[in-house]
């Protein structure tokens, strides 16, 4: 095994070169929502892998291609990195202090669209590989990269891709695209994502809006139908009323509670940042608030639309009304099942007229906090970061990690250079160079020890 | 009394002159919603009254002035005409076949914004007066005109104006601004308007929208609060749940039922025009449908707004949500009382967080179908129109008729030249010249017999 001092020295000495490579990647726009620059960026990423001796393929999907790269190493073990080369739209442009696709260094930070999410995670991992290759001439284990181009557009083709390439993607462990430190600069190990079933509910009661003086007493009103249908889904007690919805919910176990209890308090920060008067269900803070936040499934109205929405009054009875609703799911719920239960419930409640359109879905999935690979990643963070890595057994968001956990049977860990001011998805997205370097050091250690 | 033949002959001979005067009035834009041309139009209307020997005042209000005119006649009786000189906005301009403020004659119809609502009603009534004056040199009774400039903007200053000018407006009967024939060309006598209490309900639960992965389980959601508050107002049985809401409702009496029973069937036309599958409350048509349409109070959602309303999905939990809601009221409900009951109800249901903004209100009011003046107006229609005038004891809309019925104690009748294709409030608004002439003939007869 190459000495850590040598590797760290290599990384410190070559940081500028890696940032230059990152800057070339950020300068190539690759906005999946706008179908902008995706093949060009895929080609650029494939070239970067080839430069490190990876066998590389650009694999077509129904949408943006997936870049796959593989290089054999000394041991039989295989580590898989999941990343994405697409980025969020740069708009609103007027809120950027420098141009989003002209990467700019200021105060130890590199600014640009997609720099944090997810391009610096690609190049910093390649940078760790550079250090290992420079010092030893070979990789300590097999390394594979799967770098998709539709992560910011719901990874719509990834499910088919993974299922069709189970052998190609075979590995022993997976490092996820993101990760980072919290407000104290403590590195966090986020394990587990909730699933999601995002639907649009819509009702049409007439072919046109009607004057409310005419229709109010005798015509069905789409807005009322929608309100009553929504009300049938959840009441003020926050309990979802769809029969069977909670049947497959696994509550957090003792170890989950222990890990959640060890995390810092969030209640005051939430109250202040969002101007909240209170939390739901009588929660006031502590571990119970943190457990409810991520270990419970939800039914959230994300939007409502009907009739007249301008200033003042218009006496109109809406012919059409719709709502965006997202269900966040926890193991072992599935979006397919929730969609089916929702239809059954609406029909049983007399809302056959309420149409359901599925706008997106992901399954929930968790990696066991006790998995040896999780322990390895946590341990290897110890001499890179000033604070120990904390384990968050479950998070509130959603993503395609379930494909890697369930179809490929891999433990999936998170590690990266995100930080509370990184502004992913927002204007002035940036990374801190100190965290970029630390992530490369951490990744080099993980690869070495894992091998 | 001047002979009807002479009056009819005068009106037929001078129709072109009256239409020319109407055209000058329509050519003067007077859009209350856009504060466009109101003083100019008031001056023009006042001049028209002065030309007929009326003593005229242009009376300031907090908004557009009221034009008041009075001319004494032979008898002690006084007839009051209520009209308005303001019009709806002309937009969308691209849907007009000729310019909205360039009155244009085509196929026996005059086109222009405000021609039907309400400028032709002003000039046709002056035209009837011209005929009476030309034949007899004096009016058979006292005539007053109150012509406001804010009818299309909720008549916001009319209530104060009427209450401050009870003596000036004193009369024995009132002819309302509008009226007309139905699809069979049968003249209709619309008596009674429902009241209205139009509110905006709004909720704010945070100072900004929150990612639904974070807030879904633990932060209050404005859209849910709104849905539950609305659901507390009315359920799928269509019964308003606000305690006391129905306490002052007067059901239709035997004569109302008889009159409603005599009206033509509307069910099939509604089904076809609006593409309805069914009516509410199991109604299928007939007198019960017509009674429910106008004799029952309503609670109508006119609009819903919250969170993300664009295409596709956005995982956001809305901090703000609002609904426009109108209550149509029947005698003896009052908008002030309904507003108070609504606040009490929301508070009692735990919705103190739901704010109520009153956006408009009118009281319900009816004129007795047996009133002698109603009978007179119906009788005098008989030899002008080919079909007898039918009495509609109540209608679904709302307006300021209650001020004249309750503060001035007048019977209020409707008469006019509206017809199903008149397109009031829409592009290509028009009047039929044959109905213009008939209305003038009808009004001359009403004034003579009333005197």
From TrEMBL, chains A, B:
One Pfam family hit: Peptidase_M20
Molecular functions (GO terms): metal ion binding; peptidase activity; succinyl-diaminopimelate desuccinylase activity
InterPro entries (UniProt xref): Cyt/Met_Dipeptidase (IPR051458), Peptidase_M20 (IPR002933), Peptidase_M20_dimer (IPR011650)
Cited SUPFAM superfamilies: Zn-dependent exopeptidases
GO BP, sorted A to Z: lysine biosynthetic process via diaminopimelate; proteolysis
Keyword terms, alphabetized: Hydrolase, Metal-binding, Protease
Chain ranges of the Peptidase M20 dimerisation domain: 192-350
GO cellular component: cytosol
Top-level division of the source organism's lineage: Bacteria
Coiled-coil residue spans: none
Protein name (record): Acetylornithine deacetylase/Succinyl-diaminopimelate desuccinylase
């Amino acid at each position: 095994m190459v000495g850590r001092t040598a590797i760290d020295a290599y990384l410190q000495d070559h940081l500028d070169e890696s940032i230059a490579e990152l800057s070339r990647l950020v300068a190539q726009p690759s906005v999946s929502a706008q179908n902008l620059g995706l093949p060009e960026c895929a080609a650029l990423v494939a070239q970067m892998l080839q430069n490190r001796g990876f066998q590389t393929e650009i694999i077509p999907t129904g949408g943006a291609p997936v870049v796959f790269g593989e290089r054999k190493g000394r041991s039989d073990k295989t580590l898989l990195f999941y990343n994405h080369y697409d980025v969020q739209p740069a708009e609103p442009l007027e809120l950027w202090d420098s141009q989003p696709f002209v990467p700019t260094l200021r105060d130890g930070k590199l600014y640009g669209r997609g720099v944090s999410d997810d391009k610096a995670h690609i190049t910093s991992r390649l940078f760790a590989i550079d250090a290992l290759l420079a010092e030893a001439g070979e990789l300590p284990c097999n390394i594979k990269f799967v770098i998709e181009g539709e992560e910011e557009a719901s990874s719509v083709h990834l499910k088919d891709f993974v299922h069709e390439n189970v052998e190609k993607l075979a590995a022993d462990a997976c490092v996820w695209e993101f990760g980072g430190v919290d407000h104290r600069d403590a590195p966090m190990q986020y394990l587990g994502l909730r699933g999601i079933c995002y639907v649009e509910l819509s009702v049409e009661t007439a072919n046109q809006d009607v004057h409310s003086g005419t229709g109010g007493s005798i015509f069905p009103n789409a807005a009322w139908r929608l309100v009553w249908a929504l009300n049938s889904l959840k009441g003020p007690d926050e309990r979802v009323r769809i029969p069977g919805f909670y049947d497959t919910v696994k509550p957090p176990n003792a170890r989950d509670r222990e890990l959640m209890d060890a995390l810092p308090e969030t209640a005051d920060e939430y109250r202040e940042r969002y101007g909240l008067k209170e939390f739901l269900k009588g929660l006031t803070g502590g571990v119970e608030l943190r457990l409810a936040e991520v270990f419970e499934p939800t039914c959230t109205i994300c939007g409502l639309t009907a009739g007249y929405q301008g200033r003042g009054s218009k006496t109109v009875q809406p012919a059409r009304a719709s709502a965006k609703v997202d269900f966040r799911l926890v193991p072992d719920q599935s979006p397919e099942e929730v969609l089916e239960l929702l239809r059954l419930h609406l029909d049983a409640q007399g809302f056959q007229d309420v149409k359901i359109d599925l706008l997106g879905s992901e399954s929930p999935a968790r990696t066991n906090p006790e998995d040896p690979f999780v322990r390895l990643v946590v341990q290897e963070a110890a001499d890179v970061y000033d604070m120990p890595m904390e384990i968050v057994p479950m998070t509130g968001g959603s993503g395609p990690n379930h494909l890697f956990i369930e179809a490929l049977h891999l433990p999936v860990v998170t590690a990266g250079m995100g930080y509370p001011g990184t502004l992913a998805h927002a204007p002035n997205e940036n990374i801190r160079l100190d965290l970029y370097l630390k992530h490369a050091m951490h990744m080099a250690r993980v690869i070495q020890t894992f091998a």
